[in-house]
Amino acid sequence: MNTITDTNYNFPNQKSVYKGKVREVYNINDELLVMIATDRLSAFDVVMPKGIPFKGQILNQIATKMMNATEDLVPNWLIATPDPNVAVGYLCSPFKVEMVIRGYLSGHAAREYKSGKRVLCGVNMPDGMKENDKFPEPIITPSTKADNGEHDEDISREEILSKGIVSEEDYVILEEYTRKLFQRGSKIATERGLILVDTKYEFGKTKEGEIVLIDEIHTPDSSRYFYAEGYEERQQKGESQKQLSKEFVRQWLISNGFQGKEGQQIPEMTDEYIHSVSERYIELYENITGIPFEKGDVTNIEQRIEKNVLAYL
Fold this sequence. Notes:
Layout: E1 14-19, E2 23-28, E3 32-37, E4 42-43, E5 46-47, H1 55-70, E6 78-83, E7 86-90, E8 93-94, E9 97-104, H2 107-114, E10 119-120, E11 123-124, E12 134-140, E13 143-145, E14 152-154, H3 157-162, H4 168-191, E15 194-205, E16 211-214, E17 223-227, H5 231-237, E18 243-244, H6 247-255, H7 271-289, H8 301-312
Antiparallel strand pairs: 1-2, 2-3, 3-7, 4-5, 6-7, 8-15, 9-12, 9-13, 9-15, 10-11, 13-14, 15-16, 15-17, 17-18
Helix pairs in contact: 1-7
């Protein structure tokens, strides 16, 4: 299967290019950003050696649908999606915090809770909770990028303000937008028979000073979903919840002795395994959006993207 794991374009008026773990972002004339979602797969802050067919298209199209479904609540950076793997939007200055919001005690929060902690990012977590229990109210547990950009680090509202990372005036808006988006995302998930467990949002400021939602939203890479059917029974029995997220990749890596630690080898990803991951991402897409997935033409993805972006620009 053809995949796109790296790009090297030179678009008209291109100023620079930034390469993240999964996305590559081209700055056009300090006005627009062309964001390309590659098929790279990242887990434990490590990029896997092989791409996953259609993963970039899936992430890009879910994010686009979710931005369109929330633009009445919160303004966002998106202008157009000229290609299945590409989003074009306004150049923004990103805030140096990720707004993580949790409706349930899962993932990182559950691991911290198990270790005996009852305060996460300055927010109290009630005693007597089991993993995957619902919080009385969703909690916001921000994280900030470390200087080396490799690991996100927990940070409290108080630290963000005292260190001047975000002004109080702006932070109040970030919190308000985060809660509104999570509420809408939860409603959309419920309509699909899913539970939006936790997610993260990233925001930036336009040249005009407007705070907007940027990057991706409500994708399986940025969010954790449970299937709603059987959730209560599984909780009562103390069973694991049925998840829709890339957690299945992490679990496979852990079971094969890899957690991104020094000296560990990434296990071999056979064609069969890669195909199974691609199928799982398609399942995620169809469950989250409620519509069948239409595969893009992958005969020559690089050429297709270049043609579509040039036609748009």
